């Protein structure tokens, strides 16, 4: 079913042990403006609210021994059930190192969904039995963080900017690095001369056709030398391939 972006609002429930990490990030910049304009509705849910006992314990030592603590299954399951009671069709995403790497394509895919539930792990992870309640595991890179809160923020930012109308200048989104499989071209602003480093003359020419051609070549060059793996997978036109050959000959 096609998404009507004129009335689109993404609803996100963030399940976390540390809800106070989110308000400042969610109220600033593009995310904050998107919330004000009705594109985004985020609710942080404290997993400890679904624990029992006065100590509100949401973790415990792992069976079999070992260092660290593991988040308990019961409070997580209850938190997910509570969130899904509002929207049963909401997709549940778990931010963890073992998930599939977040890509631009995945961000675009998720931006078409109206309801997401993001589970943030912490400590030594979550009880494995919780995985049956999760639709997808996502990682933001091959490294380990203290918890899933920062990755959740990254995911929200990456997804939100793909929703039409969230970023005022749509060309800015279309020219983002990775949007079409390539890195973005280099950008410059005033002054024209900064400590002897001058803005390329073509950008001062006012010739939009030449500027567009220069930017395309620079995008290909940047990708070739910094992320050749991306260039190998990118869908290039014949003129792009000629530019790549030219760049290689130039050294």
Describe, in short, the structure shown.
Helix 7 packs across helix 9. The protein contains nine helices and nine strands.
Helix content: 25-40%
What is the CATH topology classification name of the largest domain? Answer: Alpha/beta knot
CATH architectural grouping of the largest domain: 3-Layer(aba) Sandwich
Tell me the Rg in angstroms: 22 Å
Query: How many helices in DSSP terms?
Result: 9
The tally of structural domains comes to 2
Notes on the protein architecture:
The chain has 251 residues and is α/β, with parallel strands linked by helices. The chain folds into 2 domains: 5-160, 3-Layer(aba) Sandwich (Alpha/beta knot), CATH 3.40.1280.10; 175-250, Trp Operon Repressor, Chain A, CATH 1.10.1270.20. It has 9 helices and 9 strands. It has helices at 23-26, 29-36, 73-86, 104-110, 149-160, 170-174, 208-226, 228-233, 238-250; strands at residues 10-16, 40-46, 59-60, 70-71, 91-101, 115-120, 136-139, 193-194, 197-198. The strands form 3 sheets. It has a 5-stranded parallel beta sheet. Strands 3-4 form a two-stranded antiparallel ribbon. A two-stranded antiparallel sheet has the order 8-9. Helix 7 packs across helix 9 (238-250). The longest helix has 19 residues, at 208-226. The radius of gyration is 22 Å and the shape is elongated. The chain starts with 9 loop residues before the first strand and ends with a helix. The mean pLDDT is 92.
């Amino acid at each position: 079913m096609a998404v009507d972006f004129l009335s689109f609002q993404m609803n996100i429930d963030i399940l976390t042990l540390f809800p106070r990490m989110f308000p400042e990030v969610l109220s600033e910049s593009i995310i904050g403006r998107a919330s004000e304009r009705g594109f985004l509705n985020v609710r942080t849910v404290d997993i400890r609210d679904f624990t029992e006992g006065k100590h509100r314990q949401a973790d415990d030592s792992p069976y079999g021994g070992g260092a660290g603590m593991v988040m308990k299954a019961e409070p997580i399951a209850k938190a997910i059930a509570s969130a899904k009671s509002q929207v049963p069709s909401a997709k549940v995403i778990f931010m963890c190192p073992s998930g599939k790497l977040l890509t631009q394509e995945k961000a675009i895919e998720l931006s078409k969904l109206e309801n997401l539930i993001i589970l943030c792990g912490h400590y030594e992870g979550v009880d494995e039995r919780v995985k049956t309640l999760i639709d997808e595991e996502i990682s933001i890179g091959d490294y380990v963080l203290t918890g899933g809160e920062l990755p959740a923020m990254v995911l929200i930012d990456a997804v939100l900017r793909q929703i039409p109308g969230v970023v005022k200048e749509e060309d800015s989104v279309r020219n983002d690095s990775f949007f079409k499989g390539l890195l973005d071209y280099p950008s410059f602003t005033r002054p024209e001369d900064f400590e002897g480093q001058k803005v390329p003359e073509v950008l001062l020419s006012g010739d939009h056709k030449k500027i567009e051609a220069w930017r395309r070549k620079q995008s290909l060059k940047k990708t070739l030398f910094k992320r050749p793996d991306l260039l190998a997978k990118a869908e290039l036109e014949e003129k792009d391939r000629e530019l790549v050959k030219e760049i290689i000959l130039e050294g």
